[in-house]
Specification:
The protein is α/β, with parallel strands linked by helices. 28% of the residues lie in helices and 14% in strands. It has helices spanning 34-48, 62-74, 94-97, 110-115, 149-168, 179-190, and strands spanning 4-11, 55-58, 82-84, 173-177, 208-214, 221-227. The chain has a six-stranded mixed sheet, with helices on both faces.
Length: 249
């Protein structure tokens, strides 16, 4: 166990198709040029940190996995080094997961992703907070169609974060997810008395957030929020911000 544990939250770079609420597409790959350029910038930044992550947890969606793939290579890991976690999937709300024709986001299995060349995924990792496919049987805090913002913040992300930290057992970790989930988990670690007093706000493409805590402590320190200094060109200024409605400032 390290003397100080580090948790990095990463938002991916530009996607090939912009995600438009109530329109989709909901599982776009990264932009073939700029998205991968952003991913490389993110991965180099993560790898250059004084205490880089030892474990990478990722959403199963394409944009997150591609970014995770670049991060694990940058930190010198390859096969079985990405842990696909259901609890990190996009906020399962209709505006972000249902297309105008009524088609709902189909979340691919781990094996499907491995077959798509993501062979850095650990096939033996079992999600600590699996999706509840039966809306009539939802374990406390499990992701499910369709979640309210309150449920995402107060239940799903708290359970996911607690279980990931237990699984990590003191290791430095990187979490590659989507703004709703990352914001809510950051809010949990920050522990502000109220949302109004929180420092958590809009999160731009490629933004990296870092929390640390001393060994044996339950208190987390927010050392860096949505930093984009590593990003190329105008993205360094923090573009295409998004935020949960309750955290819009």
């Amino acid at each position: 166990m390290t003397a100080k544990q580090h948790v990095y939250f990463v938002r991916y770079g530009l996607t090939k198709y912009p995600l438009v609420e109530n329109e989709g597409p909901y599982d776009s790959p990264l932009h073939p040029i700029h998205g991968y350029e952003h991913g490389l910038a993110i991965s180099r930044k993560i790898a250059s940190m004084p205490c880089p992550p030892e474990v990478v947890y990722s959403s199963s969606l394409h944009r997150s996995l591609s970014t995770s793939q670049m991060i694990v290579h940058a930190i010198g890991k390859t096969k079985n080094s990405i842990l696909v976690e259901d609890g990190l999937v996009e906020w399962l709300t209709p505006s972000l997961t249902v297309q105008p024709d009524g088609t709902r986001l189909q979340i691919r299995s781990v094996q499907d992703r491995i077959d798509m060349t993501f062979d850095e995924i650990d096939p033996n990792y079992k999600s600590v907070n699996p999706i509840a496919w039966d809306p009539n049987n939802v374990p406390d805090g499990a992701p499910y169609f369709f979640e309210s913002e309150e449920y995402l913040i107060e239940k799903r992300t708290k359970v996911t974060m607690k279980k990931i930290l237990e699984h990590a057992n003191g290791k430095n970790i990187c979490i590659v997810s989507h703004v709703p989930c990352a914001q809510a988990m950051a809010l949990y670690l920050e522990g502000a008395p109220s949302i109004e007093e929180s420092k958590i706000g809009p999160w731009p493409l490629g933004g990296i957030t870092m929390f640390t805590r001393e060994e044996g402590s339950e208190r987390w320190n927010l050392d860096m929020y949505a930093d984009c200094s590593h990003m190329p060109g105008e993205y360094k200024n923090g573009l295409k911000e998004w935020s949960l409605p309750s955290l819009t400032k």
